Amino acid sequence: MPAAAAARTTAPLDELTLRRAQRGDERAWRDLVERYQQPIHALIWRLLAGRARHRVEDLVQEAFVRVLRALPGFDLAGPASLSTWVLTIATRLALNELRRPEHGAVAVEPAASERPDETTERRQLGRAIAAGIAALPDAQRAVLVLREYHELDYREIAEVLELDLGTVKSRLVRARAALRDHLVTAMPELGGRS
User: Which pLDDT belongs to residue 119?
Assistant: First the structure.
């Protein structure tokens, strides 16, 4: 998927910067925020998929507040990488937001802005993918977004969502099948492509 590369294009935060951020160094904290701002925003945007979109910025800020509070206790040698740990915090916030009573559906749009050089077909496909992802059950959407857009491996997804590995795999299979069915229905010309 086109945005998958965007989630991991920036190099991981180096250990020295992380240690400085843990000690409260403002510049190191800004580096951490700059590194994870786009991935957290994209993750929350996609997980909310048309519901409570007006809350995305608030949830991004809340994720960073929680990261800041918990950062001194983060163990670099622990079982989770920093990116997995940060995305876990953001994922849980978004999933908690989805459990709240709905505030009404909002039109689904791709997270990334459209470039002028994109073709009409590519824009239509992007909208169809966004609508298909929005139509998925929350549990399937979360697994698909973490795998396809944030390139987490199955073990990391299981850790973030606190699921068994088999559950992650089965939800991903179901999500991909449902998305494929949605795309073939929304864009019948895709039915002949492999």
Answer: 64
Out of 1.10.150.120, 3.30.428.10, 3.40.50.2300, 1.10.1740.10, select the CATH number for domain 4-108+115-192: 1.10.1740.10
Contact 108, 130 (CB under 8 A): yes
Report yes or no: 160 and 84 within 8 Å, Cβ to Cβ. yes
Name residue 60's amino acid.
V
Q: How far is CA 107 from CA 29, 46, 56, 98, in A?
A: 34, 12, 14, 16
Structure confidence at residue 4 as a pLDDT band (50, 70, 90): very low
Distance between start and end Cα atoms, the chain: 15
Instruction: Pick 191 or 177 by higher pLDDT.
Output: 177
